[in-house]
DNA sequence: CTGAAAGCGCTAACAG
DNA sequence: CTGTTAGCGCTTTCAG
């Protein structure tokens, strides 16, 4: 691997000049040309590790998500990666599985690796600790979920509004005993979507104890949705519709319904977050669409601004959801 | 950020000793303890960038995939990440969009960033050029797709066997005029799956011209599957089943069938590659499951061995597919 | 077993 | 505009 000195020697200039050519310093056109030619001949490209050590900042950012197999986070990751690429940044992918310990490990690596910054969908609203990074001056952007006490920029979705929208839609379509399968108790997204659901139910005059009895916490995976749905169906007075706060959990819930011989829209099903194959599921699913890709790209842009030294006060960008009504919530009595 | 010298000073030893403590060199227990305590007090963790520069090898590997939003690659990425984590490696995620230029850019970054190694699902069998990395001694593992001329380790799927399995299954279920929609003519995955289909048909005594008449090439997208299926249905003697060599194309094919008022399993449908929601499609789809996660973890382990200096000759690991029989291939006569 | 010293490749003052 | 110089933080001979 050719170094900057090799190029300097070949071009008959000093290493500093070579560096300047590659970093936009003032160099006469003629010399610059000679350097570029020498570099090309030697197949030289600047060693980023050495540069990082010298400048004390890297061109790598960390992205911590619970699980990239979740289509929502895959799309978010894609948004981050595309935006980062435009800025010349590389993205290190870290799956935390919503495990605070695992997350802590990755945050430590981000520090040790001197990453330029970190975008994190926090594993826990209360236990995720970003203070070490903030204290060291490393820019952090919270995405999707915002850890409670963190002094960081954030890009989130209006989950409460989305949950309320979803529930109101189900009510309007005539469902009465509407259940909710939300995510882990710690996560802010779970809580907010649940809060939206609760608010809408309360507005509709549903007694709080019924609402509570019809609420389950899952794990943002198909498995959790399946278990939760089975529990709900086993209730003395089972629900007639369900608002599932995550697309993967919806898959599990649908499976449980099918096993029980129950079909939408007789039983209403509304998913928070797109199913990639929504059009193939029968009947087509009503969903609350999340701007997952934009969430990622916005976060990366916010981080980029911070890296560029934007002195703005901390900001939180909130993106809106869009309700996509389809047949799975057509109404409690099968139309026909 | 505390440095190794800070710790050395605090512990009253030399930087070299601190380094030894953190890298398993021989140090007396008493001194080691003092160093560890000082390190803990200062919140010290070794600067990986400096270490990389010094040792000339990083603890970061690159992962190049076409698109992490494709569930197959998301799962593969997860497999890589999990295995890398166990080895103390971090993964940089790169989406190439099957664009050779983009891929080239990322390979250059891998070089400049002095990454420890690279795992790549090549954008092109013929145009992907891994030689620069190989020449510089950077370990490379090809995954899923193997660029033709590359001297690298590889982990692939036994596509031919999978295609044969699929076709035999359809034959056993009583379908007779089995069609095949495979991918682009250039891709090795397309060709291999098609070869498996042909072999099975030949073994079953089907005349070659029928097999050929019932074969179509698509583009690995829903659109291509849709077009191909329509053509097949328009044949003088249309098929009674189809083996679709890609999950997205299956989506298109199913849509075409639905438009024609045809339903599985009267018309058999078998998809190569999981649809994440396979069990939700009505009727549930029979699929040839690809070991996407294992593909990733195996690749990462192979890379780990290379990094550890395994002097073995280059190897190619071939993983088997698993046929998951469901209702969409229950048999040519609608049961019931 | 331990410390001193010499860089890994690059950039950022500082003179010239 | 250009070259010289001095490290960034760490590991690794080489003496002791």
TrEMBL record, chains A, B:
Keywords: DNA-binding, Repressor, Transcription, Transcription regulation. SMART domains: HTH_LACI. GO terms for molecular function: DNA binding. The keyword Flavoprotein does not apply. InterPro entries: HTH_LacI (IPR000843), Lambda_DNA-bd_dom_sf (IPR010982), Peripla_BP/Lac1_sug-bd_dom (IPR001761), Peripla_BP_I (IPR028082). Residues 2-55 form the HTH lacI-type domain. CDD domains: HTH_LacI (cd01392), PBP1_EndR-like (cd19977). Coiled coil: none annotated. This is LacI family DNA-binding transcriptional regulator. It comes from Streptomyces ovatisporus. The lineage of its organism: Bacteria, Bacillati, Actinomycetota, Actinomycetes, Kitasatosporales.
């Amino acid at each position: 691997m050719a170094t900057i000195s090799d190029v300097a020697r070949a071009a008959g200039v000093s290493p500093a000049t070579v560096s300047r050519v590659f970093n936009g310093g003032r160099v006469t056109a003629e010399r610059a040309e000679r350097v570029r030619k020498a570099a090309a001949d030697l197949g030289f490209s600047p060693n980023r590790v050495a540069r990082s050590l010298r400048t004390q900042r890297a061109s790598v950012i960390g992205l911590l998500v619970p699980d990239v197999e979740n289509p929502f986070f895959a799309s978010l990751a894609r948004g981050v990666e595309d935006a980062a690429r435009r800025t010349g940044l590389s993205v290190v992918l870290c799956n935390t599985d919503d495990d605070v310990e695992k997350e802590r490990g990755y945050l430590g690596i981000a520090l040790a690796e001197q990453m330029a910054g970190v975008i994190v969908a926090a594993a826990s609203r209360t236990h995720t600790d970003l203070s070490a990074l903030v204290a060291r001056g490393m820019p952090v952007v919270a995405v999707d979920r915002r850890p409670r006490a963190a002094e960081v920029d954030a890009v989130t979705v209006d989950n409460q509004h989305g949950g309320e929208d979803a529930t109101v839609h189900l009510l309007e379509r005539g469902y009465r005993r509407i259940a909710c399968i939300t995510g882990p108790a710690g996560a802010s997204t779970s809580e907010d979507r649940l809060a939206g659901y609760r608010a809408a139910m309360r507005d509709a005059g549903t007694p709080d104890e019924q609402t509570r009895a019809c609420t389950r916490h899952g794990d943002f995976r198909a498995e959790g949705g399946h278990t939760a749905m089975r529990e709900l169906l086993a209730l003395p007075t089972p629900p007639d519709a369900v608002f599932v706060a995550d697309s993967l959990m919806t898959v599990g819930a649908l499976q449980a319904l099918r096993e029980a011989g129950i079909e939408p829209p007789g039983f209403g099903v509304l998913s928070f977050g797109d199913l990639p194959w929504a059009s193939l599921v029968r009947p087509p699913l009503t969903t609350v669409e999340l701007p997952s890709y934009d969430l990622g790209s916005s976060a990366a842009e916010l981080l980029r601004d911070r890296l560029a030294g934007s002195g703005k006060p901390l900001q939180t960008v909130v993106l809106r959801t869009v309700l996509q009504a389809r047949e799975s919530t057509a109404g409690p009595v099968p139309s026909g």
